[in-house]
Write a structure and sequence with these properties.
- There is one protein chain.
- This protein is an alpha/beta fold.
- It has one domain (3-217): 3-Layer(aba) Sandwich (Rossmann fold), CATH 3.40.50.
- 38% of the residues lie in helices and 26% in strands.
- The chain has nine helices and nine strands.
- It has a seven-stranded mixed beta sheet, sandwiched between helices. The chain has a two-stranded antiparallel sheet with strand order 8-9.
Length: 219
Amino acid sequence: MPLWLWIVLGVVLVGAAVVLQQVFGRPRPCPWWFSSILWIMEKGPGRSRAGSTLLLDRARVAPGMHVLDIGAGPGRISIPAAKRVGTGGSVTALDIQAKMLRLLATRARAEGITNIRTLEADASKADLGRDVYDRAFLVTVLGEIPERVAALRAIHAALKDDGILSVTEALPDPHYLRRSTLLRLAREAGLRHEETHGSWSAYTMNFAPVRQRRGKSSV
């Protein structure tokens, strides 16, 4: 697909998201019927800024790991993650939209992938368990969640002590969060900043959970 068409699709996606937010008066997830356009980050020029291989590498996802993908959509991160962790690992793909998860499940079946579990839930209210996951991803989705600190706290609890939450933000996403905003939200949720990749227009920040032991934070 030519570059100009990718740009047009991106503009359409941004415009629709802005309209939805204005109509409903609060952040809204990308609608399921835009799912094919979400692959612009995977197949188009956005690959070098936020492609799945790049993001999995930044989070150091390895075979045997258990991965949580929040706002999984049609599986742009979940499916490559499932392939990378292999049969010894697993991926939990969470999304608030059932139709997105059905699209993901259809893609996974077509590729013979059996280690993905789908979970329809609100990230800020979901019971994700405790000390379950080695890695968690929020890829251009945190800005769509109204209760952001609550969602981050749930992820914090679900991560293992040596786990990593990898958050990616990229323009022209209309729900883009600045790095300073993300750092503030993460601190409120008890997450420690570990490293940053990329530039201000498309970046990934990795965070580690801070556990409370004997009245002190482990570092």
